[in-house]
Structure formats: C-alpha cells, structure tokens
Amino acid sequence: MFVSLILTKSSGAMLVLLSLWAYSLIQSKKISSVKKLILLFVFIGLTILVLNFSEKISSQIDTINYLNWDFLKERAESFKAGGYGSFIWRIVYWLEIMISFLAEPLYKIFFGLGVDSLTKGNMPYEFMYKDPHNDFLKIFVEYGILGLILFMGLIMRVYYLTNKNFNLIILIIIPLFFGNAIVNFPFNLAFLMIWIYEYKRNT
C-alpha cells in the first residue's frame, strides 16, 4: 500500500498513513522501547524515501519558508493566493475567506451563509473560484459558529462511541482539514463502514 501511494504521489493519503502509523507506534504497549526506537528510525527512513520520490511533497516542504504572518496577511488582503505551492495557496485562500466571512453581519457569522455557499458556481465572494479544500472552513462559512460546534460535537460523539479510537479521528480530521472529504462519496462510505465496525466491536 505504501509503495502504491508513493507511485501515485497521493500526499494526503501518505500523510494519513504516516500519522496513523506514528500514533499506533507511540500508543502500543506490546512493543518494547528498543523496538519502538528501531521502528522510529524506520519511520524516519520511510519519510525521507517519500520526500525523495514525491516531488509534490518536496515542493510543499520548500514552501514552509513562506509561513510568515505578514507575508500571508498581505497575500490574503490583496487576494493573491497562488504562486507558492498548494500548501501556501490553501492557507492564503482560507485567510481570504475567513477575512471576508468575519466581515459579514453577526447573525450570518452565527448561522452561516447557507448550504452549498462554498460550492463551485455558487461562491459568495468575487475572488473565489473554487471550494476552499477545507471542510471545517466550509462548514463554518455555510453553517456558522452554531454549525461548526454541532459538527465538532459529532466528531466527539464518534470518538466516544468507538471507545476513544483516535485512529478513526486521524482518518477523519486530516482529509477534512486538507480536502473535500465531506462531499466525497467513497470517503463517506468507507468512514461509515469503519464507524459501524468499530461501534459493533466496542459495544
């Protein structure tokens, strides 16, 4: 699976897989400290391998130099999101949307702009040309503070119903934060199947 992800250059999937592996390694009580140390070195080696084989991830890491608040704010206020890789594009684009949304009347901030407000062809702001690639932001803008609180409550409910299975939370949070998982049918189907399996296993 790992080799397939490297070949397809699916950076999001690799991030999820590496996060799951790292968390499972740290939490495991069956693995001795020496083995954990060895596996840590293997993990670092695999990470370096991913960086060498995936130009996309390498270029994303290079853009970390631009993680400067003044630079990001200036780009967001001038509505210039592109030109520095998809990671910086996301951050600047999210800032643009947040700045615009927080300038809305208070009742809109609380209740949101409405369902599908951030869907292509139905964008609320002139500078927008695609969805934000962040489902938490999408929910916040479309359903407001109230909707975001309810959504976070749902995630916490999943966490407790699956006997505090943090692996499942990793599977949910990373795709939601960096993509459009909430409107992705295969992701939702896989998530539902895992949730049902974990719920039955723990009840």
Descriptive account of the structure:
- The chain folds into 2 domains: 65 residues, no CATH class; 137 residues, no CATH class.
- The N terminus is likely disordered.
- The protein is mainly alpha-helical.
- The protein is 70% helix and 0% strand.
Comma- or semicolon-separated keywords:
70% helix; mainly alpha; 203 residues; disordered N terminus; 10 helices; 2 domains
Helix and strand layout, with pairings?
Layout: H1 2-8, H2 11-27, H3 33-53, H4 55-62, H5 69-77, H6 85-101, H7 106-111, H8 135-161, H9 166-178, H10 185-201
Q: Would you report the number of β strands?
A: 0
Strand content: under 5%
Number of domains: 2
Determine the number of helices (DSSP H or I, runs of at least 4 residues): 10
By helix and strand content, what is the structural category? mainly alpha
Report, as a whole number of angstroms, the end-to-end distance.
Answer: 30 Å
Shape: globular
Oligomer: single chain
The level of helicity is 55-70%
Name the helix and strand elements from N-terminus to C-terminus, one letter apiece.
HHHHHHHHHH
Q: Low-confidence spans: pLDDT under 50, at least 5 residues? A: 1-9
- Mean pLDDT rating: 78
- Describe the sheet with the most strands: none
* Gyration radius, rounded: 19 Å
Provide a compact summary of the structure.
The chain is an all-alpha fold.
